[in-house]
Amino acid sequence: MAPTSRPSPLTALVITASDAAAAGVRADASGPLVAERLARLGFATERQVLPDDRASIAAAIVDGAARHRLVVTTGGTGLTPRDVTPQATADVLDYEVPGLAEAMRAEGRRETPMASLSRGLAGVRGSTLVVNLPGSPKGALQSLEAVVPVLAHALETLSGPFDHRAAAAAGRTDLPGADPSPATDEATPEVAGQSAAGGSTTSEASPGAAAAEEHMGGGSGR
Questions:
Q1: Residue 37 belongs to what domain range?
Q2: pTM of the model
Q3: pLDDT of residue 160
Q4: For residue 74, which phi and psi values (nearest 5 degrees)?
Q5: Distance separating alpha carbons of residues 116 and 108, to the nearest angstrom
Q6: Which long-range contacts link 22-26 to residues 24+ away (Cβ below 8 Å)?
Q7: Is residue 203 part of a domain?
Q8: Percent of the chain with pLDDT over 90
Q9: Going by C-beta distance under 8 Å and a sequence separation of 6 or more, which residues neighbour residue 197?
Q10: CA-to-CA distance for 86 and 119, rounded, in angstroms?
Q11: Does residue 5 sit within a domain?
């Protein structure tokens, strides 16, 4: 079981797992975009680029979870032998949060059935949430957006103990079992309590293999 000390609030580590990016052969395309989106959600972010090495990724997650509320990886979630991010993540999680991974794949399947081949996990180490995103920029941002609506509550629950009844009595309407407020056209509140600039990161779907390539990142090294 990981230590239960609580990292500083609203900080995140973004880990890019890519042989090519780590070797300087190709620029890290997804890591900066994920970090930028998290910054708009109110996170102070740190970035790291690693090769597709199981032990190195696992060690980075352990280190990140000791210092950050959120650890997000991008890359290495496909089916090739070098796609080892889910294995590395499973090695160090205390427990999984399957609904988050299911939500990310469901969002991806709105554009391509190949999203089902993404093996990304989501789970908890200590009091830190760990989320695996695909390696392509589009797939990474789509998957991140799929968990944004529940991210704030996940983190406040992990910082616990959290009293749902007291929060509901205080007027919180975004919690399970609470009476929803009247429907409006306003966006869902962001993690830092404000709506982020820039709007949705999704775009018109591309059919067939092109959409799959764009979502998944095309195999190892992405």
A1: 11-179
A2: 0.77
A3: 77
A4: -135, 130
A5: 8
A6: 22/49, 22/50, 22/51, 23/51, 26/221
A7: no
A8: 67
A9: 40
A10: 6
A11: no
